[in-house]
Design goal:
The protein is an alpha/beta fold. The protein has helices at about 15-30, 45-60, 85-90, 105-115, 120-135, 145-160, and strands at about 1-5, 40-45, 65-70, 100-105. The longest helix has 17 residues, at about 145-160. The two termini are about 30 Å apart.
Length: about 160
């Protein structure tokens, strides 16, 4: 598994963010039973940075907490079985790793939401990574049943690694 973490926010998180990110990515991949070694890129930015990315990529003119940019197309969420049919689209030719995609997280939102929801910044960061990893695995929350499923999955991923409210 290759996890690349880039930190471009001026505001620093006073916690072992790389360890938390890698821990949750690993658990998320195990949880969805990803059969491959995978590559995930994570950018930690501020509200201004994520606002610009949100505007450029989605046409939404405000900051958000996390953005997910999946590299894989899933017909069914969490079903990795078809990816080997076109390996040149989904796998790094040098490492053989599955290219899962990119995660962008606002450090400002990690701090704001941890305070708002009454839990630690560690738990908030872990939650945002788990949420995004489910998106990278094809899950969504546009319908109520999808939202409920994702909430249950996120909670289980976090609990399996000891990230509790």
């Amino acid at each position: 598994m290759t996890v690349t973490v880039e930190y471009e926010a001026e505001e620093k998180l006073d916690l072992p963010y790389e360890e938390i990110i890698k821990n949750v990515i690993e658990e998320s991949l195990d949880y969805v039973e990803c059969p491959y070694d995978a590559e995930v890129n994570v950018l930690l930015t501020d509200n201004a940075g994520i606002h610009q990315i949100n505007l450029d990529m989605r046409g939404i003119d405000n900051p958000t907490d996390v953005l997910s940019f999946p590299m894989c197309d899933f017909e069914t969420p969490g079903d990795f079985s078809h990816l080997e049919e076109t390996p040149e689209e989904y796998f790094d030719p040098d490492t053989g790793e599955l290219l899962m995609g990119d995660i962008v997280i606002s450090v400002d939102k990690v701090k704001e939401q941890a305070e708002k929801y009454g839990h630690s910044q560690t738990r908030e960061l872990a939650f945002l990574v788990a949420h995004s990893m489910l998106h990278l695995s094809g899950y969504d929350h546009m319908e109520d049943d999808e939202r409920i499923q994702m909430e249950d999955m996120q909670r289980e991923i976090l609990e399996r690694r000891g990230y509790r409210r």
